[in-house]
Write a structure and sequence with these properties.
The chain is mainly alpha-helical and 357 residues long. It has 22 helices and no strands. The longest helix is centred in the first third of the chain and has 22 residues, at 49-70. The protein is elongated.
């Protein structure tokens, strides 16, 4: 009696995406096995609990060995020990560096220090993100921050090159680094309606218009810092509200352009000077660290909340900002138009993103 036996031998490292997700979420082997059992894997694969346990342990050992390479993703591409197809390598990296926005929102603007890491138990309880996953994500934030904090050039591009992340994820990490550098206040009660996505969009606008790379690409300063010379120059814009003639002319130009076009014209006409002072003075104070921290608090307290109180719509705000920014071109005594438009480009983008419930 004879029998035929086909044998195939290969060294490709197998990656089970479900088990990888369970490992990333911080579940133990026993917890992962239990979840796989509840998912009906035994019935689908016609296997045993013992085999499932062994399979899960093997995957966890593989992920633990891969983790040191995931800390520096280019090394994962260069190593020869694990034979992983390129598309699988990209998946491993992307999912390892993906993060929970609720966790990122809690940490945004905080120093990525040991003290903050000690608070992760409380953060885990508030967000529902497992503590092991919280620690891994925090370590990722800190690793990226340390890798790019002294580099020249656009933050998102540097992160994308060093960590092989997709562009959208690299931009989100750039926002986290930007907030960690400037230490903006994000935890106050009046800011709780703002999501991580809101703050990330604001950071991207500020970097696009105010960063060293936007102002002088050839300069040596890291792109994640707000240039001190630019912040100092913003004081020059105060002439728009300290010079009575300029303030009156600015109001006249804006109100003439908006008459009949917005639903809150009367409120705008009555409150223009207070609103203009708020918009200009937010920038004029940014040379002081405390005022930098309160940037978003000031925008909400002095611009967004008064506009909400007067029943402005997002469309009203968009039209106002458009004409408010353009009007100084026609003010003969104003000589800082380029600076003004660069300043207002980021301010307008932030306000329009933040103007929601």
């Amino acid at each position: 009696m004879s029998s035929d036996l086909d044998v195939f031998v290969g060294n490709t490292t197998l990656i089970d995406e479900e088990v990888y997700r369970l490992w990333l979420d911080g579940h133990s082997v026993a917890e992962a096995v239990a979840r796989r059992l509840r998912g009906g894997l035994l019935e689908r694969e016609a296997t045993s609990v013992a085999v499932l346990q062994s399979d899960t342990r093997d995957h966890y050992r593989t992920f633990q060995m891969l983790e040191r390479l995931l800390h520096a993703p280019p090394r994962l591409l260069q190593q020869l020990l694990f034979q992983i197809p390129p598309e699988r390598q990209a998946l491993l990296v992307q999912r390892y560096y993906a993060f929970d926005e609720a966790l990122a929102r809690e940490l945004l603007g905080k120093k990525l220090s040991k003290g903050t890491k000690k608070e992760l138990d409380e953060v885990s309880a508030r967000t529902g993100v497992g503590i092991r996953s919280c620690r891994r994500q925090f370590d990722n934030f800190k690793r990226v921050f340390k890798a790019v904090e002294e580099l020249r050039g656009p933050l998102a591009e540097n992160i994308q090159q060093l960590f092989l992340l997709p562009p959208s994820l690299a931009r989100d990490y750039a926002a986290i680094v930007f907030f960690a550098n400037s230490r903006f206040e994000t935890g106050k009660r009046r800011l709780q309606f703002l999501s991580f996505g809101d703050f990330a969009a604001c950071a991207q606008s500020m970097m696009a218009h105010w960063s060293q790379g936007a102002l002088a690409p050839e300069a040596a300063e890291p792109d994640g810092d707000l240039p001190k010379s630019f912040l100092q120059d913003l004081k020059e814009l105060k002439v728009l509200v300290t010079d009575k003639d300029l303030l009156d002319q600015h109001k006249s130009l804006v109100c003439s352009a908006l008459r009949g076009k917005i639903s809150v014209y009367n409120e705008l006409e009555a409150n223009f000077k207070a609103l203009s002072r708020a918009l200009v003075n937010v920038g004029g104070k940014l040379t002081h660290a405390r005022d930098v921290r309160d940037f978003f608090v000031d925008l909400v307290e002095k611009v967004i909340e008064p506009c909400r109180s007067d029943k402005w719509s997002p469309g009203d705000l968009r039209l106002f900002l458009q004409h408010y920014t353009a009007a100084p071109r026609n003010l003969p005594g104003f000589r800082h138009q380029a600076l003004w438009e660069r300043y207002m480009a980021a301010i307008s983008a932030c306000l329009l993103r933040m103007f929601h419930d």
